[in-house]
Amino acid sequence: MNISGKTKLCVIIGDPVDHSLSPAMHNAAYKDLGIDDEFVFVASHVKVENVKDVVQAVRVMNIRGLTCTIPHKLEVMRYLDEIDPIAEKIGAVNTVVNENGTLKGYNTDWLGTVIPLENKIGSLNGKSVALIGAGGAARAMAYGVIEKGAHLTIFNRTKDKAEKLAEELGKRAQTRTLEEMAQEMPKQDIILNATSVGMGKQIDQTPVPKEYIHSGQIVFDAVYAPRETRLLKESNKQGAVTIQGIEMLLYQGTAQFELYTGRIAPVDVMRRVLHE
Ligand code: ATR
Q1: Active site residue: 47, 73, 161, 237, which one?
Q2: Residue 200 class from Cβ within 10 Å (0-12 exposed, 13-18 middle, 19+ buried)?
């Protein structure tokens, strides 16, 4: 670490935040590019009711970047000077850049979905995408694939929530129940899991029965702990191409890194930190 009087501060706020991988990922990238004298990245445990004061601190302390985790992604939007149109559409800000006292909010979560998919198949235009889940994680994923011209079908246990999300996306998505997977899932080019099935208490479960998955499909799981979920293991066995949730963390982070530093992110270094 190479901190001086000129070093700029970037901070991730969350509640909780101590599990965050962002400080390790960003600081390793600064070091790799030899800019660890220019930037340092730390985490701060902040209650949602204090987000307003934090934004004021960012202004007066001239903090360069403010990264927000749930639930701060919504709250922070109220106190910024500008919001990028994409973040506005998604309805959440995970990245705040301080440009000489003007605070602008961005969302890079959708890039965490789109970039890994494009790395595998090139363009998403015209592809059929199934998204399972309609909660917080699903929003940016849904927005990302629609923005890139894919045909989206949202499957959710609670149909009303899927319909609400489709409505918010300007009706640019179809909705289905989980029971309709049998007919619909095999037709999809890409399957995205945005539910919590496969982690925590549901670690032994999968959101998509393996018989609906086949070679020629891409399966991307937003769950990143465990790295190889039951869904991904079974999809591999069925011959599908798989993408781990850690890639989503990586590419929302690389996009954010570029906004804070104006440099191209060292992707491999940042990936290595996440894997470690
Ligand atoms: P997050 O912010 O992580 O997306 P969330 O907003 O609570 O968390 O959303 C969790 C998603 O996982 C929801 O789509 C939820 O389905 P419901 O809308 O029906 O609640 C889905 N989910 C969680 N457990 C599930 C299960 N066992 N089977 C199917 N879907 C499940």
Answers
A1: 73
A2: exposed
Q: Residue with the nearest Cα to atom 31 of ligand 1?
A: 195
Handedness of CA 215, 217, 218, 222 (dihedral sign): negative
pTM to 2 decimals? 0.94
Looking at domain 8-107+248-275, which CATH architecture does it have?
3-Layer(aba) Sandwich (3.40)
**Residues 98, 59 contacting (CB under 8 angstroms):** yes
User: How many A from CA of 135 to the centre of ligand 1?
Assistant: 6
Q: What is the CATH number of domain 110-243?
A: 3.40.50.720
197 C-beta closer than 6 A to ligand 1: yes
The CATH 3.40.50.720 portion of the chain extends over 110-243
What are the mean pLDDT values of the chain's consecutive 10-residue runs (276 residues total)? Answer: 92 96 98 98 98 98 96 95 95 96 97 98 97 94 96 97 94 94 96 97 97 97 96 98 97 98 98 96
